[in-house]
Specification:
Blueprint lengths: L19 E8 L3 H7 L10 E8 L5 E8 L5 H10 L4 E6 L2 E7 L5 E3 L20 E5 L2 E4 L5 E2 L10
The structure holds cytidine-5'-triphosphate and zinc ion (ZN).
Family: Belongs to the PyrI family.
Cofactor: Zn(2+)
Protein name: Aspartate carbamoyltransferase regulatory chain
């Protein structure tokens, strides 16, 4: 049973998890941003496995992140969808996948991204919660209209 058709004997597989979440079909190159979104920096003892540029059926190459002992909040999934629009969230309990769903891009995200425009009211010292409309290929600030396409991950408030 190979998930990618390659000769399994030549592959170092990321091992299965016991309880937690597998974020699969992450766009290649985005795994570290996924960790950043989830606030994982290795400092809090969570057991995390990361595969980068793994061959995949659905994507040419994918990244995969497995987090032991953790389920994700809707906010976290919403932000993940911005950088990993094809991702699958698998909830694992007692080694079985008990829930699997594709991320859905929300129409908008509030309070999770900061605007790169230094003149934007959301970046001033005002009690304004950022709000971005989600576009097909980026996000648009609801206050100043600045569009971010590349580098959305850099705008994530952590
Ligand atoms: N997985 C895991 N630990 C488990 C169970 C599953 O790490 N205890 C991982 C698998 O390695 C896989 C992902 O979770 O990367 C989804 O598992 P599964 O649904 O069994 O695989 P597929 O059917 O290949 O998933 P899909 O159809 O979404 O590609
Ligand atoms: Zn703005």
């Amino acid at each position: 049973m190979s998930e990618n058709g390659d000769d399994a004997s030549h592959q170092l597989r990321v091992s299965k998890i016991h309880n937690g979440t597998v974020i699969d079909h992450v766009r290649a190159g985005q795994a570290l941003n996924v960790l950043a979104i989830l606030g994982i920096d290795g400092g809090d003892g969570e057991s995390v496995s990361v595969g980068m540029n793994v061959p995949s059926d659905r994507l040419a190459r994918k990244d995969i992140v497995k987090v032991e002992g953790r389920e994700l909040s809707q906010d976290e999934v919403d932000v993940l969808s911005l950088i990993a629009p094809d991702a699958t969230i698998n909830i694992v309990r007692e080694y079985d996948v008990v829930e699997k769903h594709r991320v859905e891009r929300p129409d908008a995200v509030s309070g999770v991204l900061s605007c790169p425009n230094s003149g934007c009211i959301t970046t001033a010292d005002e009690p304004v919660t950022s709000r971005f409309e989600v576009l097909k290929d980026g996000v648009r600030c609801g206050y100043c209209g600045t569009i971010v396409r590349e580098g959305i991950a850099d705008q994530i408030d952590t």
